[in-house]
Amino acid sequence: MGASVVRPQHRGVVVRINDVGGLQGFGPVEVDEPEEQFHYEWEARVFALVRTLLRSMGVTLDEFRDAIERMPPADYLNSSYYERWLTGLCTLLTERGLVSPEELA
């Protein structure tokens, strides 16, 4: 029988999916050998766009992190690191009225 994931609670409220501190049942952590920072060219572009957004639009790191953490749990768990960054970027651009959801589709 597989291990079940135990969800931590803070004051009776289940934490967001990204907050896995204290969770059990995920198995061992796989550690890869050091590699390039970006696996694909698009990841470097997302990194540059996020840095520009943070710097030029006054978006704080906390706002950016919150945009990522509001992803639906299944999407969060099935996304790569930079896919999460792209989602956070699109969320902030949409919320600030700089692009429409239709333009991002």
What's the CATH H-level homologous superfamily of the domain at 39-95? Nitrile hydratase, beta subunit
CATH class of the domain at 39-95: Mainly Alpha
Q: Determine the N-to-C terminus distance.
A: 42 Å
The largest pleated sheet is described as: 2 strands, antiparallel
- Which regions contain 5 or more consecutive residues with pLDDT less than 50? 1-6
The CATH topology label of the domain at 39-95 is Cyclin A, domain 1
Shape: globular
The proportion of strand residues reads under 5%
Keywords:
105 residues, mainly alpha, Cyclin A, domain 1, two-stranded antiparallel ribbon, 4% strand, disordered N terminus
Describe this structure in words.
- The N and C termini lie far apart (42 Å).
- The chain is 48% helix and 4% strand.
- It has helices spanning 41-56, 61-69, 73-78, 81-95, 101-104, and strands at 9-10, 13-14.
- It has 105 residues and is mainly alpha-helical.
- Strand 1 (9-10) and strand 2 (13-14) form a beta hairpin.
- The protein contains 5 helices and 2 strands; from the N terminus they run ββααααα.
- Helix 1 (41-56) runs parallel beside helix 4 (81-95) and helix 2 packs across helix 4 (81-95).
- Strands 1-2 form a two-stranded antiparallel ribbon.
- The protein is globular.
- The protein has a domain at 39-95: Nitrile hydratase, beta subunit (Cyclin A, domain 1, Orthogonal Bundle), CATH 1.10.472.20.
